[in-house]
Amino acid sequence: MSTPAPSPAPTTDPADRIGALREQIDACDAGIIELVQRRLAVSREIGALRAASGGTRLSLSRESQVLARFRSALGEDGAALALMLLRQGRGRL
């Protein structure tokens, strides 16, 4: 039984590969920015609806859910990201 031949070494210049990967990061960043902007618009609309109906501008139980979800998926840095998103949507407390 013969063993498969090893894959040939990549012929691409590392600088070219790094450039291509950075383009992917830039595309991810653009998508993240678009999603954050959409999230902020939705959050602000919720805040306006809550205020118009006599409610408070925030829901601590909902914020706790968001924090827990981000922490579970991304660790403590995820919780920090969630806090930033929450603050952007509702303003500082």
TrEMBL record:
GO process terms (BP): chorismate metabolic process
One GO molecular-function entry: chorismate mutase activity
InterPro entries per the UniProt record, alphabetical: Chorismate_II_sf, Chorismate_mutase_highGC-bac, CM_dom_sf, CM_II_prokaryot
Top-level taxon in the UniProt lineage: Bacteria
Chorismate mutase domain segment(s): 12-93
Cited Pfam families: CM_2
Name of this protein: Chorismate mutase
Taxonomic source organism: Trujillonella endophytica
